[in-house]
């Protein structure tokens, strides 16, 4: 059986790892390669690197970062943030990334997913969706530009479209839950897993070991992503996996 | 020297990075003479079966690889590179593979609760206790594939359970295949590449 994956996320700014709490405040926590190696040793199943810089030189900086990490750390690597063209994807995949993750650029230009899928295969194409509950519309609303700009798009409909366009995996962040440490947004993931057939990585809200158990017992998502609880050592990946094993969730 | 066959497929650089990390002498090459002179060959591969066979044919590498295998040279196919070792693939219609190992490459059957592609970490069960079976028995490795190999049980070193039992490691004499990505499977994956290096060294020693 496939193991449920535990995925730390590293926010990278000019080659240094940062963590934006609620997408705003930044705290420097270090060198990407060293942190990646530490997470590999802890038993992480995959790493996501999110490029949070917004300047022109960033593409080459991120490619360089991935090249360095991939020469020392031998696990699946996903890279997202500011990828706008097939050439951007190719540079990152060639540097050692296994998947690229599109967010705002895919909302603006869904054909970009298809172009990437045709060239590299759907298994390389992750679409990241940031969403929050929109009560007056009774829907999960898509938010782009690093969680700053709501758009008139239903997240579940967008998930279906993204998969139809060639996404092989979805990385879905609940902005309502992100930073709250009150558990994953189970309703969001139950809705999404019923709507699409690709693997889903859940993100946002974990604060305690049992949050992971609830996620994997109450939804059929494939992976859980977290950042600050791991970065600041509040939880270790080994502890998360131990608790999941006790709850009879298959982990590596 | 181990040569990684360089035919413009996805995981080539990551295989090289893993060999470099392990300090295993290696080079990338698509040159038939270099490939023929190698002590051991690694055939990487990501993507579609027919396109990969066409890329090998374009570089005149099909007979070179077949002769290398027939000569007893240790050869390791990884992911699609393993699938190409077999006789026939069925992605977008039937197409011939390298035909070095007997068997076919067919779609993973769709079944409730089993998404295709088979992507993520899955556990290997050794069916034979040879050097690769010993490294990987009970260990989880990273898979990404939509097709799997059907071959005689005697060629299967290890399997992984999914909607069907998937041959995760195959071997016939000097030719080995790994359906997962050892270059993306952490410590145990690196141990598997090291085991191939030892196989190459043993073969080299016994010949010279």
Automatic annotation (TrEMBL), chain A:
Gene3D superfamilies: Aldolase class I (3.20.20.70)
Statement: the UniProt record of this protein carries the keyword Manganese: no
Active site, per annotation: 11, 130
GO cellular component, one term: cytoplasm
Primary enzyme class: lyase
EC number per UniProt: 4.3.2.10
UniProt cross-references to Pfam families, sorted A to Z: His_biosynth
UniProt key word Cytoplasm: yes
Example of a GO biological process term: L-histidine biosynthetic process
Catalytic activity: 5-[(5-phospho-1-deoxy-D-ribulos-1-ylimino)methylamino]-1-(5-phospho-beta-D-ribosyl)imidazole-4-carboxamide + L-glutamine = D-erythro-1-(imidazol-4-yl)glycerol 3-phosphate + 5-amino-1-(5-phospho-beta-D-ribosyl)imidazole-4-carboxamide + L-glutamate + H(+)
InterPro entries on file: Aldolase_TIM, His_biosynth, HisF, IGPS_HisA/HisF, RibuloseP-bd_barrel
Cellular localisation: Cytoplasm
Predominant subcellular localization, coarse grouping: cytoplasm
Keywords carried by this UniProt record: Amino-acid biosynthesis, Cytoplasm, Histidine biosynthesis, Lyase
Family per similarity comment: Belongs to the HisA/HisF family.
Function statement: IGPS catalyzes the conversion of PRFAR and glutamine to IGP, AICAR and glutamate. The HisF subunit catalyzes the cyclization activity that produces IGP and AICAR from PRFAR using the ammonia provided by the HisH subunit.
Protein name, UniProt field: Imidazole glycerol phosphate synthase subunit HisF
TrEMBL record, chain B:
Domain of life per record: Bacteria
Recorded GO MF terms: glutaminase activity; imidazoleglycerol-phosphate synthase activity; lyase activity
Record's keyword terms, sorted: Amino-acid biosynthesis, Cytoplasm, Glutamine amidotransferase, Histidine biosynthesis, Hydrolase, Lyase
Associated pathway: Amino-acid biosynthesis; L-histidine biosynthesis; L-histidine from 5-phospho-alpha-D-ribose 1-diphosphate: step 5/9
EC number: 4.3.2.10, 3.5.1.2
Domain Glutamine amidotransferase residue range list: 4-187
One Gene Ontology term, aspect cellular component: cytoplasm
Active site, renumbered: 79 (nucleophile), 181, 183
SUPFAM superfamilies: Class I glutamine amidotransferase-like (SSF52317)
Subunit text: Heterodimer of HisH and HisF.
Stated role: IGPS catalyzes the conversion of PRFAR and glutamine to IGP, AICAR and glutamate. The HisH subunit catalyzes the hydrolysis of glutamine to glutamate and ammonia as part of the synthesis of IGP and AICAR. The resulting ammonia molecule is channeled to the active site of HisF.
Protein name: Imidazole glycerol phosphate synthase subunit HisH
Source organism per UniProt: Loigolactobacillus bifermentans DSM 20003
Gene: hisH
